[in-house]
Structures are given as C-alpha cells and as structure tokens.
Amino acid sequence: MQIYPNRFEAELDKGLKPCYLLFGDEPQQKFSMIEAVREKARAQGFTERTVLVADSGFNWSQLIEATQSLSLFASQQIIELELPTGKPGTEGSQTLQSVAANLGNDILLLIHGPRIGKDVQKAKWFKVLDDTGIHSICYALEGNNLHTWIQQTMQKAGLNGDAACVRMIADMCEGNMLAAHQEIQKLSLVYAGQAITPEQVEAAIVDQSRFNVFQLVDVMLNGDRQRCIRMLYRLESEGIEPNILIWAFIREWQTLSQLHEVRSSGQPVQWMKFGIWKNRQGCYQSALNRLSAAHLVHIREALEQADFAFKQNTVERPYIKLAHLCMLFMGIELNGLTLMPDLH
To answer: What is the three-class DSSP state of 81?
Structure first.
C-alpha cells in the first residue's frame, strides 16, 4: 500500500507493518521516515537492529540468516536493507520473496534506496512485500506543497511563523529540503515557543549562507567583479556543481526580465510580489540600472548555450564559463576581458 510522505507518521500511529519500502532522491523526507520507523520500532520492543547494504559484493544469504536468528538479549529485530541501485537483481528478488513469509511480530524489514521507476514497483518482489507492508516514494516538494511542509516542520520544532517567514525559507532553500530542515532546527534553538519575524529568519539564514550560491548572486547583481571572481573560486574549491549555479543564474535572469518589464511600463515595482526582501532590493536596482533590454537578451542567449553545453558535458573548464556569465550580468563586455588568475 502506498502512503505519501506527509501522511506517513499518521499511518505509523495506526501500528507497525511487517515491511516498509522507502525510496526516492529527496533525502530529508526519506531520512525522516526511516527515523520515524526506527523510533516506533524501538518503542514497541524492537531493540535489535541489523543493517545490510546490498552492493555488488553482497551475499544475500546474510539477509536470510538475519531473519532466522535473534540475539540472547532481544526477542524482536528490525532489519534495514539498503538497495544502492533500487534493484535487488535476480538473486535478491528471489531472496526477498522467500523472506517475506518470515516477517511478522518478531521481524520488521525496512528497505530503502534511491528513486525507482514503475518497473521496480511492478516487480514481483516489490509487490509481495508491499502486500504485507507500506511503500512511500519521496520527491522534492515545490510551490504550495513545499510551503505546507515548511509550515508543518516549523510547528513541530515549536516555531510560530507567518506566511512571509515560510516563503523566505522556501526561497532560500528551494530544491534542498535538507537545508530547509537544518535552518528550521537552528531557528528552534533560539526562538522555540516564540513567534518569529521575517527579519529573524533572514538574519539566521544569511549567517548560514556565507560562501554559497545565494551570496554569489547578490555580489553579482551588485556588480562587484573582483569579489564575485573570488567567490567563484571558493565555490569551485568546495566542489559546488556548476549546474547549481546555472540554475541560479537562469532564475535571476527570469526575475530581472520581469522587473525590467514592470519598470519599462512605468509602474512601480512591487518587490514582495517577486519575493524580494528589503535587504536585496538594492542588488536588483543596481542590476536593472546597468542592464538594458538588449543586455538581457544577450544574457538569455548565453545562458541557453551554457545550459546546453553543461548538460552535454562539453565544457572543459566550467568555472571559467560561469565567470563569463557573471560578467554579462555585470554589464561587462567579454571581448579582451582578462580574468583573475585564481580561476586558472
């Protein structure tokens, strides 16, 4: 039976199932569900825990042995089996089908892994285990679903924040629910049981955001060339994936294009409509003052070419290309441009 992540704990409260199948590439939801199963199992006497990883050298007889033996100090056991590829293979499939019959009051099987497709969910081993238990697939949340999750996570942490606080956390941590959870936990250490303001959220997240993509974007929008290049070098040394920066640049181009359209129409800019807080409005004003419509068209074309090249893995020196893109946002012509040696 499938249960969505946001209803998983409520389902656990109804009682433990013999088997749980938890898959997906969104780590925060998956980890939360795994922890919830562990806690519920411990509370009900599953004091022995066996952890197995079914990698390429895994001997499936270990799983069979685990289901057939208990220590002298425990009468109930939780077995955690990680499938790194999401698929157990032929031998693993047969083994899982055979152990399904041994699951019950004394043995709880928790299987987890990365994102799986319909082919896996239709496999015989998956169906056999799902018939006796529960499966849940984790996907990164977006839009209203992400806002709802943030609000619920804040409430669990003892925080009371309005929609503006939720939106700020979502904007700063979009695509990274693990980071959002960490930010909320950090806020709860200081403001537990209190109503928090957007200014408090902003201050906490900014302190956490040093040398990350968001700070780079602000520096780029402000037009600080030398600092921008130094930060790019730092991000490269930390192993930040270039595609993350490309995503951020595309998002900023979209925002700047929308703001430029509003300003060109003679209407006042409603900053909050674009999710731009007061401390960042100056960055965008600086960028808009130096970038014309022609500049924005040029940036769009460069981003499209770069995005395609990165996806095709045809960029030999990604961070040099990223530096060029930053220069375009600063309104600097690339002809004859000499970059700082840090990036070479």
So the answer is: strand
